[in-house]
Write a structure and sequence with these properties.
Blueprint (H helix, E strand, L loop, with lengths): L21 E9 L5 E10 L8 E7 L6 E7 L7 E4 L8 H10 L13 E9 L14 E7 L2 E4 L10 E10 L5 E10 L2 E12 L4
Antiparallel strand pairs: 1-2, 3-4, 5-9, 6-9, 7-8, 7-10, 10-11
Membrane topology: Multi-pass membrane protein
Subcellular location: Membrane
Organism: Ptilonorhynchus violaceus
């Protein structure tokens, strides 16, 4: 019930500088659970923004009245990685020892924002639902922690896919929940949902 909403939400996207990426933003109005209406879109060319500073942008919505006020910062990203299982970070015992020292109790107040990080090895899925007419699926796996999101590659025509990928997330809130969702890639259409599991960090 507002024409001037304030969300005050922060989202982190992992942007690789060798890509020419546009940030696409859509604003929607929801009447009820079933009816939604697009109120406008806008686009931001990430490569045109100055780095290592917070950019305050007022973006007019295309073909619709209104504008969005956003703060966008392009900054070097630390602690986030995707790697193959054979070159897994933390595989070296000396590196693990350095990490243990870094997060020991006596150093816990050295950097309040550096809580730690989570490493997730996504090995495989078993007996997935068949989403295609061929009796197969094209599954990929999405990992979300807070507002961080990383995903695996797609394994085509397979109900027992093996990804063997290692994901590393910085932890910003120890009360966050790791959500792992499996989707079926469906070309230009939205992906089909195949299943989900949620793991509270406090349970690890």
């Amino acid at each position: 019930k507002s024409a001037n909403p304030q969300w005050r939400e922060q989202f982190d996207f992992h942007y690789f500088s060798d890509r020419k990426d546009m940030l696409d933003i859509e604003v929607w109005r929801k009447d009820n659970k079933k009816h939604e209406e697009l109120l406008g879109t806008c686009h931001v060319d990430i490569t045109a923004l100055p780095t290592k500073q917070t950019n305050c942008l007022e973006l007019p919505l295309e073909k619709h009245p209104g504008s969005l006020l956003m703060l966008i910062a392009v900054a070097p990203c630390t602690g986030v990685s995707i790697s193959d299982l054979c070159v897994c970070p933390l595989g070296d015992p000396s590196e693990r020892q350095q990490i243990s020292q870094r997060y020991c109790i006596k150093n816990s107040l050295r950097d309040i924002k550096d809580i730690g990080f989570l490493q997730v090895k996504v090995l495989k899925a078993v007996d997935l639902m068949a989403a295609d007419f061929s009796g197969k699926s094209d599954p990929f796996c999405v990992l979300e922690l807070g507002n961080d999101m990383l995903q695996t590659h797609t394994v085509y025509k397979n109900l027992n896919p093996e990804w063997n990928k290692v994901f590393t997330f910085p932890i910003k809130d120890i009360h966050d929940v790791l959500e792992v969702t499996v989707f079926d890639e469906d070309g230009d259409k939205p992906p089909d949902f195949l299943g989900k599991v949620a793991i509270p960090l406090l349970s690890v």
